[in-house]
Design brief:
The structure holds two protein chains of two kinds.
Chain A (H helix, E strand, L loop, with lengths): L1 H11 L4 E6 L3 H10 L8 E6 L7 H9 L4 E6 L10 H18 L7 E5 L5 H18 L3 H5 L3
Helix pairs in contact in A: 2-5
Chain B lengths: L2 E8 L3 H4 L4 H7 L3 H5 L1 E8 L5 H14 L3 E6 L2 H13 L8 E5 L1 H5 L5 H20 L9 E2 L4 E4 L3 H11 L5 E4 L23 H12 L4 E4 L3 E8 L2 E7 L7 E5 L1 E4 L3 E3 L16 E3 H11 L12 E8 L1 H4 L6 H15 L4 E6 L9 H10 L3 E11 L2 E6 L4 E5 L2 E6 L1 E3 L3 H8 L26 E3 L9 H18 L5 E2 L6 E3 L9 H5 L5 E4 L4 E4 L9 H5 L5 E3 L4 H11 L2
Parallel strand pairs in B: 1-2, 1-3, 3-4, 6-7, 6-12, 7-8, 12-22, 14-20, 15-16, 15-20, 16-17
Antiparallel strand pairs in B: 5-23, 9-10, 10-11, 13-21, 17-18, 18-19, 24-27, 25-26
Classes of the chains: A alpha/beta, B alpha/beta.
Bound molecules: flavin-adenine dinucleotide (FAD), iron/sulfur cluster (2 copies) and FE2/S2 (inorganic) cluster.
Chain lengths: 149, 561
């Protein structure tokens, strides 16, 4: 009985993913994927930031605490950041965040960092679709259950 | 007062209207009114970006007294500017408007219409929520200063100065030496294809000195700079002179040239120990002064080895000009004495100009010997080399002339720091993009030309100088206005502990420490608004305007509701 419920819950599980995309590369890639009419998983909602480096620890953790099942941070390839080196800082913060997440009992795979250039509409679609699938497998954010959200 | 938010969904012809159920969106949104305590005006329109659409929006803003505007339409990359323009015609501050991309991010990527509609609603709700927390920001319009500062009075700096002065720009030319002309004026001669020789360089110096629009500061250096494209304030000073000059310019050209690597540091070369081993530059200067190349011990050499590519491996790049000028130096020697034994040891010749191969053949015709080598060591004036056939041989010469690699000129790091321009791995200035904008740097209004950009001969140095002048003439039009970035970061004094974390992460050096107040301060004129500093602040003192925490949190909360 209990098990059946859980399966049902999983079937109905509609993951909520937030994608923080840098304005100069990945946001443009998302636009390109759109104008190329690629099919993309609706689980992800895009939030535009100027640079991946703007996505700080608090923003990511607050997003998880608010109930998101996954967070994607995506920006320009190393060396291509519009602001010179922002994405290197993003990478450092990401590495630390993963550790923090594990210590909070959150699977660190729920956070993903990708470099997607403005020309890589294909890659954008691939990354979003496979990440959405991954989150579906992981199931709902455990914090939601813990806090009864 | 309740906020009154206008939400307009664009049909974009069939692009949006066929893929999402716009009426359903319009029916659902009013549910937000109570929960957010706002008033909504919700409508659809055919093409918001059309002339009619713009008039429609303008009327809607005015007639309804909207406090905020949200458009469900296409990518901000397409039409943000269009709608900012509409807002500017009304009393609505453009920072209280937001375009939501339901075309590229819903209509075009989700084939199931119900799902696409649901997604569009999510996006628009998130957008409404964000816009409610946005703040009006005021754009500043500043007069453009069309004058230009040029650092370095070599051939590149002089050429840029002349091109700009020809269009009546005041140019400040700052040179650290006591003369203009840089390296080119010290040379014994130019390549035959460059016709005219050093006299041509001296003519250029005379034109610069005789030009009223060009103010030359010799034995001077740049000591400080703040500002941005159109409005730089710079300080120029001379070592030992208390008095500084404060100049206002609209653009800065860096033309500080290249230096020569010190061959003394290279293994296998006896440069510092033996008088008869000299550098190419020594040879040029000697030829320029005395009209010939003599041994330090007196008299003419009977045999000379010319060594190419000294330090190329260590530097990791080819200096591009050395093969050519080494053949030129061989020419000086052959002119001096036709039966002098002249041997060029090279590692594959780099002869990039259309006339260069012919030049090399001509030298061969005059008896200059070219030996391509794999390995080479020099002891005194003895050259030991391994040829391409793998055989080693030793040869004794009277004199050895080295072509050391070019390297960024002395003081490049300090200058880059001062200007906030990044350096590339090679140590030269990093251009913004080699194929789209090779003379510009990531600091708008700062250009790099000539051998300061990368190893270059005179012709290429001039080309870069002319390109930078063209860029400046088209970007800085006298009487024009410039709008500096306003989505910048700021530091709230009450929270800042002065830890300095943010100073370290800002690539533009836009943050400085105010000793008096014990806090850090963002120089808004330099900040580009990337938001990187934000993540480094442990005290919550930083705020990136238009991308504040509250704005992003509120958008995010609705996005996952
Ligand atoms: C041995 C040799 C032979 C060459 N022969 C030829 C040839 O035959 N044909 C050819 O086309 N090219 C030749 N070249 C290359 C040529 O010298 C360069 O292409 C040319 O000098 C580049 O001009 P520039 O103005 O960019 O730099 P430079 O000539 O190096 O001038 C830079 C100027 O900036 C000044 N400066 C540097 N730092 C500062 C600072 N911080 N503040 C203020 N001023 C500063 C310097 O004092 C100098 O006056 C030769 C080079 C060498 C080394
Ligand atoms: S927002 Fe970016 S450019 Fe501005 S001060 Fe912060 S790190 Fe520097
Ligand atoms: S990181 Fe924060 S607290 Fe530290 S100096 Fe910068 S603004 Fe002040
Ligand atoms: S601007 Fe794209 S990662 Fe910095």
């Amino acid at each position: 009985m209990q098990e059946k419920m859980e399966n049902q819950e999983l079937d109905q599980f509609k993951p909520k993913i937030v994608g923080f995309l840098c304005n100069w590369c990945t946001y443009a890639a998302a636009d390109l994927a759109g104008s190329s009419k690629m099919e993309i998983d609706p689980a992800l909602t895009v939030i535009r930031v100027m640079c991946s480096s703007r996505v700080d620890h608090n923003l990511v953790l607050t997003t998880f605490f608010s109930g998101a099942d996954g967070v994607l941070i995506a920006g320009c390839h190393p060396g291509d950041c519009h602001y010179g080196a922002g994405n290197y800082y993003a990478r450092r913060r990401y590495a630390l965040l993963k550790k923090v997440m594990e210590s909070l009992g959150l699977e660190s795979e729920r956070l993903k960092l990708s470099w997607i250039s403005a020309a890589e509409g294909n890659r954008y679609a691939e990354v979003v679709n496979s990440f959405s699938e991954k989150i579906r497998q992981l199931g709902p954010n455990p914090i939601n259950k813990m806090s009864g959200l | 007062m309740k906020a009154k938010v206008g939400v307009y969904v664009c049909e974009c012809g069939p692009n949006i209207s066929e893929k999402v159920d716009i009426d359903k969106i319009l029916e659902t949104l009013p549910g937000l009114e109570e929960y957010r305590e706002i008033e909504l005006v919700v409508k659809r329109f055919g093409l918001l970006c059309s002339g009619d659409g713009k008039t429609f929006l303008e009327d809607e803003i005015n007639n309804n007294g909207l406090t905020h505007l949200v458009l469900g339409a296409c990518s901000p990359r397409d039409h943000d500017k269009t709608f900012i323009g509409v807002c500017k015609k009304t009393s609505l501050n453009p920072f209280l408007y937001k375009i939501i991309n339901i075309r590229e991010h819903c209509a075009w990527i989700i084939s199931d219409k119900d799902k696409a509609t649901e997604k569009a609603i999510t996006y628009i709700r998130a957008g409404i929520n964000r816009v409610l927390f946005q703040s009006a920001l005021l754009e500043k319009k500043l007069d453009i200063n069309p004058d230009v500062l040029i650092i370095g009075g070599g051939i590149a700096g002089m050429e840029a100065a002349l091109s700009l002065a020809a269009r009546d720009r005041t140019v400040y030319l700052v040179e650290k030496d006591d003369h203009l002309g840089g390296k080119a004026v010290l040379l014994g001669g130019l390549l035959p294809r460059q016709g005219g020789g050093p006299a041509k360089i001296r003519e250029k110096i005379e034109s610069v000195l005789g030009n009223d629009m060009i103010k030359v500061y010799l034995e001077s250096e740049l000591e400080g700079v703040i500002g941005f494209l159109g409005n730089f304030e710079v300080i120029v000073g001379s070592p030992g002179d208390e008095e500084k000059k404060d100049l206002k310019v609209g653009a800065i050209i860096v033309a500080t040239g290249s230096g020569l690597a010190d061959p003394a540091i290279l293994e296998g070369l006896d440069y510092s120990k033996t008088d008869e081993v000299i550098t190419s530059m020594d040879a040029e200067r000697m030829f320029s002064k005395e009209g010939k190349i003599s041994l330090k011990s007196g008299g003419d050499p009977k045999s000379v080895a010319l060594i190419h590519c000294v330090g190329r491996e260590e530097k990791g790049y080819c200096s591009r000009i050395c093969c050519n000028y080494m053949i030129k130096i061989a020419g000086y020697l052959k002119d001096q004495s036709a039966d002098m034994k002249v041997t060029e040891f090279h590692r594959g010749l780099c002869l990039p100009d259309k006339a260069d191969q012919g030049f090399q053949k001509e030298a061969e015709g005059r008896g200059v010997e070219f030996k391509r080598v794999r390995e080479l060591t020099i002891t005194g004036t003895n050259v030991r080399y391994e040829g391409m056939d793998g055989k080693s041989e030793g040869l004794k010469f009277d004199m050895v002339i080295l072509a050391p690699a070019l390297e960024p000129s002395e003081g490049t790091e300090g200058m880059a720091d001062l200007l906030g321009v990044p350096l590339s791995e090679s140590g030269y200035y990093q251009e913004i993009h080699q194929t789209t904008n090779p003379v510009a740097t990531s600091i708008e209004g700062v250009f790099v030309v000539g051998a300061a950009h990368s190893p270059k001969g005179i012709t290429d140095s001039m080309l870069f100088a002319q390109a930078s002048a063209g860029k400046i003439l088209s970007q800085l039009i006298p009487g024009g206005k410039i709008t500096p970035e306003i989505k910048v970061s700021e530091i709230l004094e009450a929270y800042c502990t002065g830890c300095g974390n943010c100073l370290d992460v800002c690539v533009y050096g836009a943050i400085y420490y105010d000793e008096g107040r014990g806090i850090s301060v963002v120089n808004e004129a330099v900040c580009r608004g990337c938001g990187n500093c934000f993540g480094s602040c442990p005290s919550g003192a930083l705020r990136t305007k238009h991308f504040t925490n509250t704005q992003l949190y509120e958008e995010m909360r609705e996005a996952i509701r």
